[in-house]
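User: quick one - fold this with alpha-L-arabinofuranose bound?
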Amino acid sequence: MKKLAISMVLAMFCLTISASLAGAADKTVGFSQVDNQNPWRLAETESVKSEAEKRGYKLKYSDGQAVQANQIAAVRDFIAQGVDGIILAPKTSTGWEPVLKEAKEANIPVVLVDRDIEAPKDLVVTFIGSDFVLEGEMIAKMMIADLGEGPLRVAELQGQPGADPTIDRKKGFENIINKYPKIEITMSQTGEFNRTQGKQVMEAFLQAAGDEIDVVYAHNDDMAIGAIQAIKEAGKMPGKDIYVASIDGVRDAFVAMKAGELNICVECTPLMGPSAFDALEAAWAGKELPDWIVNEDGAYRAADVTQEVLDSRKY
Ligand code: AHR
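Assistant: Sure. Structure tokens for the protein plus alpha-L-arabinofuranose:
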């Protein structure tokens, strides 16, 4: 009798598990990624891919190679293939409305990850990402706490033009420094969020006015790491002769902080796979979500980075 009851419970358990797996296995999700040109993006891609696998969804993946038109074509292709949901990491903030309307007409929920866009809120399920204005403000406040109220000449390495983090990280930084007349951005150019271009732009800055740069503010770690290389090649000491600040919190940034070459770093998590699939599942269940699910991020100074902190980094 006892044996029969146990086998019945086991059978029901197996049925429930296979039913829920069958549900997941039936669903296909399209993921349109901006590019994969830095470790942050690779970590985000991996987070989405591994979470799809964990939950038993089929994932169609497209790398936009930093071209918005490629991403729009990928989303159209996902719609034509009749996917059940779309995760979109958009390159720029504008230009998405027509394709998002097509997804809505096809009844396919779209979840935005990491960058927000300018479009009516009802076209997407939600936006999951960090507060980029706050990140820029945090960098400026930490820099002022470390270096004082100026005079300070800041060389800024901007991210991809027209991208939400580029616009807002600049805005946040300026919100704070504009209160200090002796702190100014004396040079500012895009390094496209990658190491090679970050290094090239920094080389040009150093050639133009190497002795007149007190701070490098890079909109992401990878450009800061390129800039650090350029500073060293110019015979200066990053972290000492020139204060270096950046955003993301990738492992290489922690290595640079431990070496004293990067002074401060504000985190911006790329690990959005779990929350992106939670959002799609909520949409499929007909649940409403807030317009913005805000990721909480930390901030670090070089002195905080022990081997233990470095070893604990997940990306
Ligand atoms: O949208 C987030 C930004 O985009 C990250 O800071 C950067 O590394 C990425 O490419």
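One thing worth noting: The longest helix spans residues 2-25.
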